[in-house]
Amino acid sequence: MSIESLPPPLQPLIQEHYLDHYFEDSLHSKLGFRAIADREPIAVGIGETVTKTRAGLLVPTTMPLDPGTNLALDNGVTAEAWAIEQYTLAINTYGATIDLNRETSQVAIGDLFLTNASKLGLHALQSLDRLARNALFAAYLGGNSFVTIGLSTAATTLQVDSVVGFETVPVNGTMTTVSNVNPMTVTVGATVYTLTGTTRDAANVSSLAALGGASGTLTFASAVAVSDAALGAGVVSATAPSILRPNGRAATSQLVDGDRLSLQLVLAAVARLRDDAVPDFDGDYHCYLDNATLLDLFQDPDFKHLYSGSAGSDAFRTGQVIKLLGVAFVTTTEAPQQTLALTGKRIRRAIVCGRGALIEGDFEGLGRSDLEPDTRSHQFIDGICLLLRKPLDRFQEIIAQTWKWRGGFCVPTDITANPAVIPTASRSYWKRAVVIECL
Predict the structure, then answer these.
(1) Please, what sign has the CA dihedral across residues 167, 420, 85, 132?
(2) Phi, psi (deg, nearest 5) at residue 240
């Protein structure tokens, strides 16, 4: 068999004398975001989207009943009703495949079948981890933006980096489009305005496009002052998730050199989660961050002072932080990186999460025997289906190795956990994670 008869991608593998008979592993991402998702099965026959309902609590009563009203059948007590909120999980199919010629693979330097299976497995895990990351950050970066075209005269419309988080408000538990009837309160610069509409740009130029951001225009009930709408000014919804930045920066665009992650910022995020009554993971909240951001902690005086007296700590010797003050630090190479076109600065983000911040829905019908009779070639690993298709070509040589996953990720809201029910709670719709932005 001549080398020329092999497919071009396999030809470099057929060499003599000096090739080692195995394949070296390539670099791959260190994952983590999918691990925080609560896994829920999605039953067969319920459609392509699933709407889930969360029941709120009743507002505590602090006033005694008036004995003078204890006359009728209701004894002077008015019937209460608890609020609800709903969120939707969309079901989609994801997958990838590699074809393998069983005949030609026998002259390769290593086992292509096992290598393909390994690479497909890593591809599947990284793909789902990125889906989880994107869903998480898309929600917890929403409602926080900045002006991309400064105003020279007062106007009712304003161009911003992303309109995500400004487009809907809850009405009777259902997220409804912002309008004159259903407005939203938004702070632009230093002044509070009433938002009545949003429009996405036909061409998305948002700096957050990779994480679901969408550039567009906000429309307000009254004109926005020029002093509030300078280039880079912060635009924040009254119900936006908490985003912390060093030195009290009001917007991503205002970060400058030296604005780095500190222990105080992490503790502030934990305090926000605890005030919102967000449950932790067996005693700890999880902080996902890249290694460069973690390195900033070792330059933070508070962190160094705390760890210098920690008995038995090997943080400096190993260069890793495992747990500290109720926070488990998890480094990942999937942490989002962003170069802001407005300033040219490289923005890095850590996110501190509590339990329930993310939901993963796995479709129960994946690989069902009544839908796919020949399931002997199916294997399930962590909810992912690995398939081996028999050769269908005339020579019966080419097999297909494939992975597929059917499901989705969504970020639930906690609108009903408001200050009337939990006095220390924020008014944010999304409460179970806090993003920390730094350089």
Answers:
(1) positive
(2) -70, 150
Tell me the sheet residues that pair with 361. 40, 408
pLDDT exceeds 50 at position 22: no
User: Which has more pLDDT, 25 or 60?
Assistant: 60
Between the alpha carbon of residue 201 and those of residues 152, 187, 400, the distances in Å are: 21, 21, 41
Structural domain range at position 162: 144-240
d(C-alpha 438, C-alpha 257), whole Å: 9
* 161 is a domain residue: yes
How far apart, in whole angstroms, are the C-alpha atoms of residue 359 and residue 135? 10
Q: Is residue 365 part of a domain?
A: no
Give residue-wise pLDDT tens across range 217-244. 999 999 999 999 999 999 999 999 999 9
Amino acid identity, position 429: Y
Taking alpha carbons only, the member of 369, 367, 366, 387 closest to residue 377 is 387
Measured CA to CA, the distance from residue 121 to residue 260 in angstroms comes to: 36
**CA distances in angstroms from 7 to 18, 36, 115, 337, 402, listed in the order given:** 22, 42, 17, 37, 19
Tell whether 159 is covered by a domain.
Answer: yes
Max mean pLDDT range (123-127, 199-203, 360-364) = 199-203
Is residue 413 within 8 A of residue 85, CB to CB? The reply is: yes
382 part of a folded domain: no
Domain count, the chain: 1
Per-residue pLDDT, 336: 87
List Cβ neighbours of 318 (8 Å cut-off, separation of 6 or more).
none
Q: What does the alpha-carbon distance between residue 338 and residue 237 come to, in Å, rounded to a whole number?
A: 22
- Determine how many CB atoms are found less than 10 A away from the CB of residue 17: 4
Separation CA 5–CA 11 (nearest Å) = 9
Token output for 330? 């998890």
